[in-house]
């Protein structure tokens, strides 16, 4: 019996010694065989073409050399490094606190249909009177004046909308297609553009809609049924709404633990 116990102790001792066998000493950092195997197996499980153990050990050594050199140079106090650390801590909090709840989110057809009833896919054609990014107030005013003149022409003209597009639109991409920008959704359109066309009837023409691209005169040419809609995009949108609700509830509760003062007028 004593012999068996001695053998078992010897095996355990040998296993412990192997795990703690040093594979590399880098300055003040000791890399044990157990640590090496753990990290190597993680990389191997996530890679189609994992490195050899020798190459991976070299990577670990370089990492430690680089880390210690960064510490020596005081990077731990660098504002950029601290900001990245803050971002990583924020991400870690969300992953730990909200990750499990987000992974349990499910989306069914009834929810998708309810969302789509309020957010249908629409097809529009437009005349764009553009102003460039960073345009001055004067340039924007000039573009608006031109847009108003064109809008007056469109309202009184008996020409097909497609012809007016070719005469006036600055959107070279859609101009040759009569202004058609294809089927779009709330996810893919600028919010005020989408809100305007959503309230229109097929065949209606409306202006002016201002976006970051310029002033639009828009014709609604189609409203797609749920059966023909992009189900993947709808599912993703419903998922995002549920995820947003989880975030909102979490931070609404968390914010109660902190004194918060806002001065919203300063950013207007």
How many structural domains are formed by the residues?
2
Shape: elongated
The total strand number stands at: 6
Distance between the termini: 83 Å
How would you characterize the largest beta sheet? 4 strands, antiparallel
Mean pLDDT: 91
Please state the second-level CATH architecture of the largest domain: Roll
Structural class: alpha+beta
Per DSSP, what share of the residues sits in E-state strands of 2 or more residues?
5-15%
What value does the Rg take, in angstroms? 31 Å
Order of helices and strands: HEEHHHHEHHHEHEEH
Number of helices: 10
Strand order of the largest sheet: 4-3-6-5
Counting copies of identical and different chains, the oligomeric state is single chain
Q: Percent helix among the residues? A: 55-70%
CATH class assignment of the largest domain: Alpha Beta
Could you name the CATH topology of the largest domain?
Chitinase A, domain 3
| Uncertain parts | 5-14
Structure description:
- The chain is built from ten helices and six strands.
- It has helices spanning 2-19, 33-46, 53-72, 79-103, 109-118, 137-156, 161-168, 172-175, 191-198, 231-254; strands at 22-26, 29-32, 122-130, 180-184, 205-211, 214-223.
- With 268 residues, it is of the alpha+beta class.
- The chain has two domains: 2-74, no CATH class; 113-228, Roll (Chitinase A, domain 3).
- The strands form two sheets. A four-stranded antiparallel beta sheet has the order 4-3-6-5, with helices on both faces. It has a two-stranded antiparallel sheet with strand order 1-2.
- Helix 5 crosses helix 10 (231-254).
- The model is unreliable at 5-14 (pLDDT under 50).
- Strand 1 and strand 2 form a beta hairpin.
- InterPro entries: OMP_Chaperone_SurA, PPIase_dom_sf, PPIase_PpiC, Trigger_fact/SurA_dom_sf.
- Residues 119-222 form the PpiC domain.
């Amino acid at each position: 019996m004593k012999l068996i116990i001695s053998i078992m102790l010897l095996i355990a001792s040998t296993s412990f010694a192997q795990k703690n066998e040093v594979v590399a000493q880098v300055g003040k950092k000791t890399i044990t065989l157990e640590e090496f195997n753990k990290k190597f197996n993680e990389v191997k499980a996530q890679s189609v073409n994992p490195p050899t153990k020798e190459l991976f050990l070299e990577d670990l050594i370089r990492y430690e050399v680089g880390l210690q050199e960064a510490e020596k140079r005081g990077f731990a106090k660098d504002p950029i490094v601290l900001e990245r650390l803050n971002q990583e801590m924020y991400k870690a909090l969300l992953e730990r606190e909200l990750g499990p709840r987000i992974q349990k989110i499910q989306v069914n057809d009834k929810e998708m249909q309810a969302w789509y009833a309020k957010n249908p896919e629409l097809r529009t054609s437009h005349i764009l009177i553009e102003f460039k990014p960073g345009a001055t107030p004067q340039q924007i005013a000039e573009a608006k004046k031109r847009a108003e003149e064109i809008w007056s022409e469109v309202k009184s003209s008996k020409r097909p909308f497609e012809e007016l597009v070719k005469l006036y639109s600055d959107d070279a991409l859609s101009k040759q297609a009569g202004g058609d920008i294809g089927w779009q959704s709330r996810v893919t359109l600028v919010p005020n553009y989408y809100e305007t066309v959503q309230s229109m009837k097929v065949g209606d023409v409306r202006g002016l809609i201002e976006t970051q691209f310029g002033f639009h005169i828009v014709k609604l040419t189609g409203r797609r049924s749920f059966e023909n809609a992009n189900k993947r995009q709808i599912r993703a949108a419903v998922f995002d709404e549920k995820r947003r609700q989880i975030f909102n509830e979490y931070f609404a509760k968390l914010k109660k633990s902190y004194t918060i003062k806002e001065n919203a007028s300063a950013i207007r």
